[in-house]
Amino acid sequence: xxxxxxxxxxxxxxxxxxxxxxxxxxxxxxxxxxxxxxxxxxxxxxxxxxxxxxxxxxxxxxxxxxxxxxxxxxxxxxxxxxxxxxxxxxxxxxxxxxxxxxxxxxxxxxxxxxxxxxxx
Length: 120
Prior knowledge:
The chain has 120 residues and is mostly beta strands.
């Protein structure tokens, strides 16, 4: 099992940057794919980015603005978000899966989420 805790959310303005962190506890963290998802009010939770080993994947809406990275020695995954826009406002969740996937239903473990609000 993996327990996940997100941090780093907050209120920023259009064009600002923010860095989210996901701290994990549990065994064999490095074997899990870690994904970031987000959910805006009234919308479904959507894929943002994922990483396993040195392989990454991004949603088109965040490609070239967001960067996902991980430190398996520290059991952490980060999401660097640059050039933020109001459309990025959402609760951001990190999640863990034993599969390499962008599919929300394949992620068995979830954090509690952290709010990101981008003011225009």
